[in-house]
Design brief:
single chain, about 475 residues, mainly alpha, Growth Hormone, Chain: A, membrane, transmembrane helix
Length: about 475
Amino acid sequence: MVTSTGNAPEKKISSAFIYFFGSFGGILFGYDIGVMTGALPFLQNDWSLQGNASIIGWITSAVMFGAIFGGAMAGQLSDRLGRRKMILISAIIFVIGSILSGIAPHNGEYYLIGVRILLGLAVGAASALVPAYMSEMAPAHLRGRLSGINQTMIVSGMLLSYVVDFLLKDLPETMAWRLMLGLAAVPAIILFLGVLRLPESPRFLVKHGLVDEARRVLGYIRNTKDEVEAELADIKNMTATEANLKEPSLATLFSDKYRYLVTAGVGVAAFQQFQGANAIFYYIPLIVEKATGQAASSQLMWPIIQGVLLVLGSLIFLVIADKFNRRTLLTVGGTIMGLSFILPAVINSIIPNADPMMIVFFLCIYVAFYSFTWAPLTWVIVGEIFPLAIRGRAAGLASSFNWIGSFLVGLLFPIMTASLSQATVFAIFGVICMLGVCFIRNCVPETRGHTLEEIEAAGTKKSANASVHNA
């Protein structure tokens, strides 16, 4: 154990505590994304919103709209204030936004939309800050697994929200949805109290000249003084290199040198959302209601089933993450996901009286394959594929496109199902899944087993060849 230079050994913060609460923001992220799934049927009845698809879409997707801006702002502010301080601020916003959601005035649709946009700022911040903090705290050989733990935290938060929704479903409507939304404050308070004890990331400390403090923090999470000093030297060198890099413009990202890799990373992030996963996560009780005619408020076991599939899939990913090529997993996952969306429409056209629950069965297959392919691998690729000179700006662009896709799917799904059959809407998403597979096969390089420098060199060469070919 590395100790302080004073008379008494310095109290060590366990690495398990640091990694747990460092990734705990994913719980909040997942809870706030998932809780509306169960709350919406009660809110819809309480405020008589059944015929207002656009308001339902806005209330559901407002969090994603706020997240588009929250991630970008948090990334910039965390470079000035620190990862830890920004996670604390995000937790406070979560607490305030959750309480304000629970006390929304009756029929206060626009009030609730505004509050959920505020919550979205915190959700977007968590989505950007948690992976950054974890990657800067984790030793190199654990970074892949710890990125998988972040995904497990997110889907565990979603499952937690589904269980809370189910347990509260027998309360009076107006009380049920308010408690569902308001209880998001509880994990936010736990996060705040836990993060109070977390250290700042060594990389941020070195960047701001606090080298001794960085050495102390590394002493918490590395085994020997030699490991601490070697990593500290690497951080100093990387920080010096980045200090000499100019902030890239948007035009730089799509210049001949970087276009291929930027298109690949941003494209994967966008396809992950436009494939329609969030249509299932947000609206599964309403989907089952439309299929069976039974009240959506009585269908809250289905979100729990989806949540269990997501958690199991994230655990499977931890096992197989580095055993199969990224492109192979995305191709297999995307193909099965696309077929799961398209086959119900095909079967309905052949057998008009087919069991309407068939579509829910196929949606479960979709979620199962999404959970260990496109859900976690998107962020693995985004973390690996961008060259150092543009990494921050390009990763922010990818995150923005991902949230834009999530926002549009959440907003448009109820509007689309108001005028089209569910099978037709999901078939459209199925086609997008297949286009995503084509994109992976033609536009995304394999990154497993390659150093970041090798990936950058291959991408630069590909861009150069494309420029010559197009000249």
